[in-house]
TrEMBL record:
PANTHER family, per the entry: SECRETORY CARRIER-ASSOCIATED MEMBRANE PROTEIN 4, SECRETORY CARRIER-ASSOCIATED MEMBRANE PROTEIN SCAMP
Gene Ontology CC terms: recycling endosome membrane; trans-Golgi network membrane
Region of interest: Disordered: 194-227
Its biological purpose: Probably involved in membrane protein trafficking.
Organism of provenance: Python bivittatus
Name of protein: Secretory carrier-associated membrane protein
Lineage, top ranks: Eukaryota, Metazoa, Chordata, Craniata, Vertebrata
Subcellular location field: Membrane
Length: 227
């Protein structure tokens, strides 16, 4: 097999940095789950775009007479959450479907659940949180209508993100539980050290020898998860 070269993020050639991850939905994800994993990936992209729009809205909030601390926090959320959300919850679910890793499924459920709750808080829009949610946008209309209108955009987008995250969380959990996944399997992977670098589907088949199938050859077939 040809050596897999890291291809994500797709950095321009003039940047003296190399991609950190290898990502190929067609080759590594079972065909029944490629649509689901791609949608989670697009959800991550949409969340990053939402953070960018939120930064612009917080600038309008500041110009319209709001606190400058919200703009500073919006910069922090964009710089921090964009890469961390990819590493902390998209990569675990990608590796979970790639190699049927119970530990990565559990990591995804825990971290993605926290991300969902945080996105709900951002959509609500409490003051001095650096997020232009519904409360912040509606209350600021009495101060500046123009800024309030701009602040509505990230409020809507955060709401859509929260809805999408909730749906994806339910879908992935339903697939995992219907395949016999459990916390005990995740503990077994932790104790054996397989969670660090779980073998791919191809490696599991090529390294197998015996009269019976390995315990986790692939992610089981549960049909179309979006039906």
């Amino acid at each position: 097999m040809a050596e897999k070269v890291n291809n994500f993020p797709p950095l321009p050639k003039f940047i003296p940095l190399k991609p950190c991850f290898y990502q190929n939905f067609t080759d590594e994800i079972p065909i029944d789950y490629q649509t689901l994993v791609r949608r989670i990936y697009r959800l991550w992209i949409f969340y990053c775009i939402t953070l960018g729009v939120n930064l612009i809205a917080c600038l309008a909030w500041w110009i319209g007479g709001g606190s400058g601390s919200n703009f500073g926090l919006a910069i922090l959320w964009l710089v921090l959450f964009s890469p961390c959300s990819y590493v902390c919850w998209f990569r675990p679910v990608y590796k979970a479907f790639r190699s049927d890793s119970s530990f990565n499924f559990m990591a995804f459920f825990f971290i993605f659940g926290i991300q969902f709750l945080l996105t709900v808080i951002q959509a609500i829009g409490f003051g001095n949180w650096g997020a232009c949610g519904w409360m912040a946008a509606v209350l600021f209309f009495s101060t500046s209508v123009g800024a309030g209108v701009v602040m509505l955009f990230p409020a809507i987008m955060f709401t859509l993100c929260a809805i999408g995250m909730f749906i994806c969380l339910i879908r992935v959990h339903r697939i995992y539980r219907s395949g016999g996944g459990s916390f005990q399997k995740a503990q077994t992977e932790w104790q054996s050290g397989l969670w660090r670098d779980p073998p791919s589907r191809e490696a599991q088949h090529s390294n197998f020898s015996g009269n019976s199938l390995p315990e986790y050859p692939t992610v089981p077939n549960y049909g179309n998860p979006w039906s």
